[in-house]
Amino acid sequence: MLSQKMTDYLNQQINLEMYSSNLYLQMGSWCAYKGLDGCANFLIKHADEEMGHMRRLLAYVNETGSLATLGAIEAPETSFNSVGDIFQKTYKHEQLVTSKINELVHLAHAEKDYATLQFLQWYIAEQHQEEFLFKGILDKIEIIGTDGQGMFFIDREIGELATKKGMEATTMTSPDNADIAV
Ligand code: OFO
């Protein structure tokens, strides 16, 4: 059984994961509008993954006998300066998500809530992968550049990552959670 405080924190995380999904979907929409199909595919696929993160939390809260609740979700920004701007923002956003997961972990420790601590292990590993992924994209943008043909290559590279990321996520998923794998 979850404490009220833990229920509230987990519900806030549900909201943040939904916001993450909307943010990446909006970014994907901007890329599609600009003709950057590789970046659009990657970001829209990533938006789906964030919904998976949300559903995993929602299932856990309800399994404990608490009520998972959906609050209002802040609208994401709609215009961006460049692909570099987008991926700097995704990296920064993932760092924020990591800090929120860490807060949940600290609370679970403080409350000796070992079931939630165990549940959160997946998110700790996932956040490591997410930060690694977005930092890698930023490095590619830095190395290749987005001038002239650079943008064409960046878009292709990021489009290819959409497939690779799916493979990584599959191998990270524990058998217990396979039904909600993302
Ligand atoms: Fe992109 O991270 Fe969710 O948890």
Write the layout of secondary structure elements.
Blueprint: H1 4-33, H2 37-63, H3 83-110, H4 114-144, H5 149-172
Helix pairs in contact: 1-2, 1-3, 2-5, 3-4, 4-5
The structure holds hydroxy diiron-OXO moiety.
Task: Describe this protein with a few key phrases.
182 residues, 77% helix, 0% strand, disordered C terminus, binds hydroxy diiron-OXO moiety
Fold and architecture overview:
By secondary structure, the chain is an all-alpha fold. It is built from five helices and no strands. It is elongated, with a radius of gyration of 17 Å. Bound molecules: hydroxy diiron-OXO moiety.
* Largest sheet properties: none
How does CATH name the architecture? Up-down Bundle
- The domain tally reads 1
- The end-to-end span amounts to 26 Å
Strand-pairing-aware structural class: mainly alpha
Quick recap:
The chain is mainly α. It has helices at 4-33, 37-63, 83-110, 114-144, 149-172.
